[in-house]
Amino acid sequence: QVQLVESGGGLVQAGGSLRLSCAASASITNIAVMGWYRQAPGNQRELVASIPIVGLTNYADSVKGRFTISRDNARNTVYLQMNSLKPEDTAVYYCKARKVESGSWHHYWGQGTQVSVSS
User: Fold this and answer.
1) Are 102 and 92 in contact (CB under 8 A)?
2) Could you give the 3-state DSSP secondary structure of residue 33?
3) What integer pLDDT is reported at residue 30 of this predicted model?
4) Which of 32, 33, 43, 72 is 20 to 30 A from 79, comparing alpha carbons?
5) Which residues of the chain fall short of a pLDDT of 70?
6) Could you tell me which of 25, 46, 36, 29 has the C-alpha nearest to residue 99?
């Protein structure tokens, strides 16, 4: 089991910045992929960014060049630095962990943190 707790959301004006944090209850060096997703009202949950233990980070086209995902293994924390925020970035942001346990993939989600961007 992995518990994830997000923080750092809030209300910001367009053009501003926020940094989201996702603290894991277990060592993230044992988690294959950590990711950030978001869901706006009436929309499906979508991938924002992901970072594997080994390999390249991945970003949605809509956030490339503005958002940066990173991981601090010593703190078991993953971050999402969000710059040049736009009103369309408004959503609940969720942290997700994908981990292999007993030979199969397991997916864990945090409770979400609200990000609101005013125009």
Assistant:
1) no
2) strand
3) 87
4) 43
5) none
6) 29
